[in-house]
């Protein structure tokens, strides 16, 4: 089947999931009438963040958060209470991956989109006064990004030191600003609300970790240096430093990321445990965030928090983190890990890629404790099966596309079986793949990097001069010293 016919079928299946949509007749490739066929971009001096304006069907316009909410949900929100432990690895996902179970697909995309929020809301703008922070206050994060439908509420933000010796894994302000020159926003803790709790069969605490801003950082900064964690278990020293470092004089990192996340997990487990609710912990992250997810899941499981019944990790494009003893500790403590790996993505081979792939293969040294090892069960996706993606990279930007989280979510949406092609009833808008990158085929005519951060917005001040938009008071970063005291209903 040619690309035009497949894209037309993709559009038709998507439209069938929601209310009827009008389509203009035309030539060439037909794409879903959500984001794909409405990307006519223009800048205005004043409108709500983010900067991107989307004209829907040519007769009205909405900001990106509205379009994001209108993007079709990947699958029906079925009740999974009877099956949640199996979906979270109770049987190591046996029988759920080949072919991919539809309920698992929905859950993977849900956690992936909760992780994607850490990129979409991250201020990496070079000249921003708040560079390295989150664009939004915690009560506005999901509404601004159109993620309230997933049924979670953010309870705490997570920060890590930005002046530790791991170079470009974090960003630093280049102009004097009002918030911090020593910290980066690295993610958040959220908890399922009453409706989602009923659907999934337990109260779910989610920890979502942000990854690296640029994939090129891996090639420059990955270092083959272990640091002892406990006993014979060792992990990459940069990951552990980012997770454990703190500074007494820092407004945002008087506590380490480790201390922040553990304090919030204990608080939430106590609240819902006192209600006699079953509580699970799902830690998710992409790239570097996948490494931090393993560290925090390991710590939470080791703490044996009363009332916490299950700990699982869903990671996307994550590197190796520690040695085989570290992996064994995760297994012994009952942490269930499902790691999604794109066949063309190089980051999961790091750190230690050269050593493990080359030395281990030819000298049979891969069993030594000093070598890095992956944890958990692998779910492999393959960019070559998607008719919408570039298959022959021509430069770093295309290679980065294989690592992009939105590419992973596109491939999960299209995955049925590793022995089959891209499924015909995939529902996720393919334009999202180019949100930050350029992984889609050029002949689809979807602009690369079309998602524009809100702090790039220019507005007119009282003198009529164009100036950078100031943040709303509720979006100015606040030190993580007073977590929410009221639980979700």
TrEMBL record:
Keyword Cytoplasm (UniProt): no
Alphabetical list of Gene3D superfamilies matching this protein: alpha/beta hydrolase
Location relative to the cell: Plastid, Chloroplast
GO cellular component: chloroplast
Keywords: Chloroplast, Hydrolase, Lipid degradation, Lipid metabolism, Plastid, Transit peptide
GO MF terms, alphabetically ordered: phospholipase A1 activity
Annotated Fungal lipase-type domain residues: 206-353
Biological process, per Gene Ontology: lipid catabolic process
Compositionally biased residues, Basic residues: 1-12
Main location: plastid
TM region(s), chain numbering: none
Location of the region described as Disordered in the Swiss-Prot/TrEMBL record: 1-27, 470-489
Role played: Acylhydrolase that catalyzes the hydrolysis of phospholipids at the sn-1 position.
PANTHER family: OS12G0614500 PROTEIN (PTHR31403:SF11), PHOSPHOLIPASE A1-IBETA2, CHLOROPLASTIC (PTHR31403)
Family the UniProt entry places it in: Belongs to the AB hydrolase superfamily. Lipase family.
Name by which UniProt lists this protein: Fungal lipase-type domain-containing protein
Organism name: Spirodela intermedia
Lineage, broadest ranks: Eukaryota, Viridiplantae, Streptophyta, Embryophyta, Tracheophyta
């Amino acid at each position: 089947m040619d690309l035009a016919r497949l894209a037309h079928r993709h559009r038709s299946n998507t439209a069938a999931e929601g209310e009827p949509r009008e389509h203009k007749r035309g030539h060439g490739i037909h794409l879903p009438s959500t984001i794909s066929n409405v990307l006519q971009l223009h800048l205005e001096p004043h409108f709500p963040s983010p900067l991107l304006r989307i004209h829907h069907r040519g007769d009205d316009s909405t900001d990106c958060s509205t379009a994001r909410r209108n993007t079709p949900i990947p699958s029906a929100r079925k009740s999974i209470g009877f099956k949640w432990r199996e979906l979270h690895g109770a049987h190591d996902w046996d029988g759920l991956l080949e072919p991919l179970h539809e309920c698992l697909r929905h859950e993977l995309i849900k956690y992936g989109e909760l992780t994607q929020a850490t990129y979409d809301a991250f201020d990496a703008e070079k000249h921003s006064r708040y560079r390295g922070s989150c664009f939004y206050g915690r009560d506005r994060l999901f509404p601004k990004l159109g993620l309230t439908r997933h049924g979670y509420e953010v309870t705490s933000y997570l920060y890590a030191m930005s002046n530790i010796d791991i170079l470009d894994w974090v960003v630093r302000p280049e102009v004097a600003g009002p918030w911090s020159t020593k910290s980066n926003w690295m993610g958040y803790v959220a908890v399922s609300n009453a409706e989602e709790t009923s659907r999934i069969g337990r109260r779910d605490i989610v920890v979502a970790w942000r990854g690296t801003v640029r994939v090129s950082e891996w090639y420059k900064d990955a270092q083959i240096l272990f640091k002892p964690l406990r006993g014979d278990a060792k992990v990459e020293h940069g990951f552990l430093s980012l997770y454990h470092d703190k500074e007494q004089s820092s407004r945002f990192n008087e506590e380490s990321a480790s201390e922040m996340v553990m304090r919030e997990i204990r608080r939430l487990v106590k609240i819902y445990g006192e209600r006699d609710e079953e509580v699970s912990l799902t830690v998710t992250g992409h790239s570097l965030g996948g490494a931090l997810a393993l560290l925090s899941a390991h710590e939470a499981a080791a703490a044996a928090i009363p009332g916490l019944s299950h700990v699982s990790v869903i990671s996307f494009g994550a590197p190796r983190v520690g040695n085989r003893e570290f992996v064994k500790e995760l297994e012994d403590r009952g942490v269930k890990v499902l790691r999604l790996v794109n066949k063309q993505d190089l980051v999961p081979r790091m750190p230690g890629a050269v050593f493990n792939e080359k030395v281990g293969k030819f000298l049979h040294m891969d069993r030594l404790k000093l070598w890095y090892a992956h944890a958990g069960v692998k779910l492999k996706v393959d960019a070559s099966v998607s008719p919408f993606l570039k298959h022959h990279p021509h430069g770093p930007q295309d290679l980065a596309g294989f690592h992009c989280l939105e590419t992973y979510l596109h491939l999960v949406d299209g995955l049925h079986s590793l022995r089959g092609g891209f499924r015909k009833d995939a529902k996720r808008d393919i334009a999202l793949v180019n949100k930050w990158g350029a992984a889609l085929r050029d002949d689809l005519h979807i602009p690369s990097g079309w998602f524009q951060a809100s702090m790039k917005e220019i507005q007119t001040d009282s003198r009529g001069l164009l100036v950078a938009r100031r943040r709303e008071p509720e979006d100015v970063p606040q030190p993580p010293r007073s977590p929410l005291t009221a639980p979700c209903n």
